[in-house]
Write a sequence for this structure.
């Protein structure tokens, strides 16, 4: 074996490569008698010197790394594509690879900033998680109107309606209700077929409850505040509305429990109402002054839906 | 310093390596380039291709050492810096073959969840203080084409406050009574021990009810029978709203109902409690029936919804 001892080998000509040519299956070997073989790559100014170094002897590795055989690209990882042979003399073919992080279990407590977009939550939220009552709408009167409507109610559903501060700027008038169908059309005398209402009214005051009044085939639903059915300057009420379904429109109807505000008698007046004869699926309701008085500013109507899943 | 100026060094023997040997513990085989960053080219055997390892630019100021992986090579492994000796630009990094690292999902920003919808099953109980004040416990629907005599809710909690809504309640034929029964921990009817068959609990049940048409008032005390809440003699749809408190010795039950699919939308009321129950007796369940043991049944679309008012 021939050996040349020297400190530097330099290419002979300008811009000429310096080739190291082993013979046959031989390799260019970087070795040192006293340390792990290290190949140093200097910057052009020879001021910076990065190195590639052999694994230590203790690792007992004799593998071969074949540089990637595919196109280099930004953001790729250097990955062992395949291995030929086995053990410490295996030959690994590298490749530039795209690495997809594996799925792992997320820890909800690691959501430490921001807030979740509501669009990411299922709709409706599950009633079985405690969300059995869903807010549907709030109507606040802040313009000069004598009636308003709430539409878009689902078929085959139950709603709770809360109305506060019903009144007419000091004037006295009755509160009337009409149902609205699933298309937004008011169910009244102008509807085809003509719609009438069957109602029962009663009250409680001292003796619980008082006699009832049966009002059949009415043009609308009159919401009483006391046992006289008086006109009212102030009224609040809670209503439970069931909308019925196309296969069972007869299940639609409303129960209303009303009380007169600012009245020392503290009556409770109740109204039950259903559509007479020509049943329709209820899709909303209209509340109005019976003779067109302007409603109180700040009158509030809040609608909730009982969730069933 | 000795220097050899050549274009090529070639091994001397067949299949022999060409060794470049540095001296001492700090000597290295150095590749330099007078005008360019040092580059080591590895050619394929046909000399038609040559891939290169190149030094970083001088501006990077790096003098690090990469020690090739010291572990077993295997397919799909990535190369990772295992550890560092020293520091700064002259640090020595030991490489290793590793599996693809899992992403560490820590300190996540909820606003970055920008697609998809959380499955309902992934949403647990929401506290009452966060808006989860009314929890759906059970929904029972009488299926189309079937009739049932009993609707039963068991497993009610102690000191629980429940809302029960009867939606589109309908009987198979005209029926006057909506029968209600309190159930004990064993699922059997709570009865007055002083009456025949009253062996379950030392408790009484009393109730009253009335309905519009008759201004009917009825009171029972110490009965072993079911509570008979008089509705009306119709088979129309009914709406019912019931409140039930199950606290020991403080059971309270109220019922409001009205008839929907009928030109007389009458209402009916009922209240009930346990009178002088034996210590510890409470309601664990409630059962509704359309006709007791008779031939009357609930029919579709009768639906009962059991909600619990959550207080925490």
């Amino acid at each position: 074996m021939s050996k040349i001892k020297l400190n530097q080998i330099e290419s002979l000509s300008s811009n000429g490569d310096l080739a190291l040519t082993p013979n046959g299956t031989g390799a260019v070997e970087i070795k040192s008698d006293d340390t792990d073989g290290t190949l140093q790559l200097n910057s052009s100014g020879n001021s910076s010197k990065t190195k590639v170094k052999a694994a230590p002897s203790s690792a007992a590795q004799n593998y071969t790394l074949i540089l990637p055989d595919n196109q280099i690209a930004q953001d790729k990882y250097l990955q062992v594509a395949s291995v030929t042979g086995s053990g410490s003399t295996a030959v690994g073919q590298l490749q530039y690879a795209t690495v997809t992080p594996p799925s792992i279990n997320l820890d909800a407590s690691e959501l430490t900033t921001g807030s979740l977009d509501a669009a990411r939550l299922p709709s409706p939220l599950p009633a079985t998680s405690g969300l059995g009552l869903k807010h549907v709408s709030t109507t606040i009167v802040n313009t000069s109107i004598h009636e308003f409507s709430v539409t878009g109610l689902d078929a085959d559903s139950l709603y709770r309606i809360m109305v506060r501060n019903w009144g007419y700027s000091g004037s006295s008038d009755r509160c009337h209700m009409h149902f609205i169908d699933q298309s937004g059309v008011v169910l009244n005398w102008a509807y085809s077929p003509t719609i009438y209402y069957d109602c029962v009214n009663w009250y409680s005051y001292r003796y619980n409850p008082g006699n009832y009044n049966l009002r059949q085939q009415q043009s609308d639903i009159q919401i009483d505040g006391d046992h006289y059915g008086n006109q009212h300057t102030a009224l609040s009420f809670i209503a439970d509305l069931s909308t019925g379904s196309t296969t069972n429109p007869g299940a639609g109807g409303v129960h209303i429990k009303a009380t007169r505000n600012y009245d020392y008698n503290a009556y409770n007046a109740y109204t039950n109402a259903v559509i007479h004869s020509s049943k329709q699926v209820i899709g909303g309701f209209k509340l109005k002054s019976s003779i067109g008085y302007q409603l109180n500013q700040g009158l509030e109507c809040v609608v909730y839906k009982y969730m069933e899943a | 310093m000795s220097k050899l100026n050549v274009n090529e060094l070639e091994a001397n023997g067949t299949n022999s390596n060409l060794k470049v040997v540095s001296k001492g513990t700090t000597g290295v085989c150095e590749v330099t380039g007078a005008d360019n960053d040092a580059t080591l080219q590895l050619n394929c055997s046909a000399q038609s291709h040559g891939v290169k390892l190149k030094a970083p630019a001088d501006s990077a100021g790096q003098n690090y050492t990469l020690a090739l992986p010291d572990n077993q090579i295997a397919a799909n492994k990535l190369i990772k810096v295992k550890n560092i000796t020293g520091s700064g630009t002259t640090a020595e990094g030991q490489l290793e073959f590793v599996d693809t690292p899992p992403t560490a999902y820590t300190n996540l920003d909820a606003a970055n969840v920008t697609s998809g919808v959380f499955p309902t099953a992934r949403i647990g109980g929401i506290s009452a203080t966060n808006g989860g004040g009314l929890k759906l416990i059970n929904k029972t629907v009488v299926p189309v084409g079937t009739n049932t005599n009993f609707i039963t809710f068991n497993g009610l909690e102690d000191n629980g406050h429940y809302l029960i809504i009867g939606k589109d309640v309908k009987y198979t034929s005209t029926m006057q009574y909506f029968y209600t029964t309190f159930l004990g921990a064993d699922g059997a009817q709570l009865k007055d021990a002083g009456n025949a068959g009253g062996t379950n609990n030392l408790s009484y049940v009393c109730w009253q009810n009335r309905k519009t048409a008759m201004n009917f008032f009825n009171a029972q005390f110490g009965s072993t029978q079911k509570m008979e809440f008089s509705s009306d003699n119709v088979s129309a749809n009914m709406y019912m709203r019931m409140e039930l408190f199950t606290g020991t010795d403080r059971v309270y039950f109220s019922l409001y109902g009205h008839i929907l699919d009928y030109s007389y939308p009458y209402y009916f009321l009922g209240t009930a409690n346990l009178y002088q129950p034996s210590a510890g007796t409470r309601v664990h369940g409630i059962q509704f029936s359309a006709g007791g043991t008779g031939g009357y049944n609930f029919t579709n679309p009768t639906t009962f919804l059991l909600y619990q008012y959550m207080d925490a």
Remarks:
- Chain A touches chain B through 135 residues (CB under 8 Å).
